[in-house]
Specification:
Layout (H helix, E strand, L loop, with lengths): L1 H8 L5 H6 L1 E7 L6 E8 H24 L13 H36 L10 H12 L4 H15 L9 E3 L2 E3 L6 E4 L10 E4 L5 E3 L4 E9 L3 E8 L3 E11 L6 E2 L4 E5 L10 E8 L2 E3 L8
Antiparallel strand pairs: 1-2, 3-4, 5-6, 6-13, 7-12, 8-9, 8-11, 9-10, 10-12, 10-13, 13-14
């Protein structure tokens, strides 16, 4: 009974003694029963070796990723050289796509000439036909419509576009675009509007509330949009790069309706030709708007 009581009273060794307790691993020759080698190990030694191996594997993997091209496949590790090559390739792809579209239009123009769909007397050059056909042959895609919608939403509350305004008979005229007057109103020279030099891509704004009467492309004035306003006012916007509104659309004063185009070889520079008519008579826009 005393021995059983003593066994029950014995306590287990603490856990740190267990992990530090060493075990002897012995290699014995089976024939001679001679001890060839022995090794003393503990649980602590095993954990230390395992952590050392994992640390070494992590360091080797990190060095491989950092000093090899594999790092370019990780988010945020792409270097400036690779990024520059991607941008350059994207620009080249866009240029090739534009060239391909122009080549397709060129071929279509030649086909129309041979088929007799286009009168040869009205042809100045094949390129001129290409520019005239772009608006009719290439329908607006869903991507273009989404861009127009996004552009209009961004410009709707753009306070930088709300420039100085003038009042006439209760009407508030918004300046049609940001820029400087490059040519004033000269009716004696049949220049019935004001030319405003502006940066390519600048917004063209409706000077008053109204309804779009005309939204088209012409060989002489490029993209043109015409708006009917109240009190018999009509505003005309010529030499636009692209149009954001179509015929019949209702527009608000200060709303984006078009975009300034790029400079053309035969042009003096990107600008907007703005005309303001009242009851069939051309008016000097500078009498109503401070540019």
């Amino acid at each position: 009974m005393a021995r059983q009581t003593n066994k029950k009273k014995t306590t287990r060794r603490p856990w740190w003694h267990n992990i530090r307790f060493k075990y002897k691993l012995t290699i014995v020759n089976e024939n001679t029963l001679e001890e060839v080698a022995s090794l003393y190990v503990s649980k602590l030694n095993g954990l230390s070796v395992l952590l050392s191996i994992l640390t070494l594997v992590f360091i080797v993997a990190a060095l491989i990723i950092v000093f090899t091209p594999l790092r370019n496949y990780l988010p945020g590790y792409m270097n400036s050289e690779i990024r520059g090559q991607i941008v350059e390739n994207a620009l080249r792809l866009d240029s090739l796509q534009n060239l391909l579209d122009r080549q397709n239009l060129y071929i279509m123009n030649i086909q129309d000439i041979f088929r007799g769909n286009v009168s040869t007397d009205s042809i100045q050059s094949i390129d001129s036909l290409t520019h005239l056909r772009q608006d009719t042959l290439m329908a607006h895609t869903q991507r273009e419509e989404a861009f127009r919608q996004q552009f209009e939403n961004n410009e709707k509350y753009n306070l930088s576009n709300l420039q100085q305004r003038s009042q006439a008979d209760g009407l508030i005229f918004y300046r049609p675009t940001l820029g400087m007057v490059s040519r004033p109103f000269e009716p004696e020279q049949q220049h019935y509007g004001t030319d405003i030099a502006a940066a390519p891509g600048e917004s063209v704004l409706a000077t008053l509330d109204g309804t779009v009467l005309l939204s088209t492309y012409t060989a002489e004035a490029g993209y043109v949009i015409q708006i009917q306003h109240g009190q018999d006012f009509v505003s005309i916007y010529k030499h636009c790069g692209s149009l954001l509104k179509k015929e019949g659309d209702e527009v608000k004063s200060g709303e984006a309706i078009a975009v300034i185009g790029q400079r053309k070889p035969d042009d003096t520079g990107p600008h907007l030709h703005f005309e303001l008519w009242h009851r069939g008579r051309p008016m000097n826009p500078e009498l109503f708007i401070v540019f």
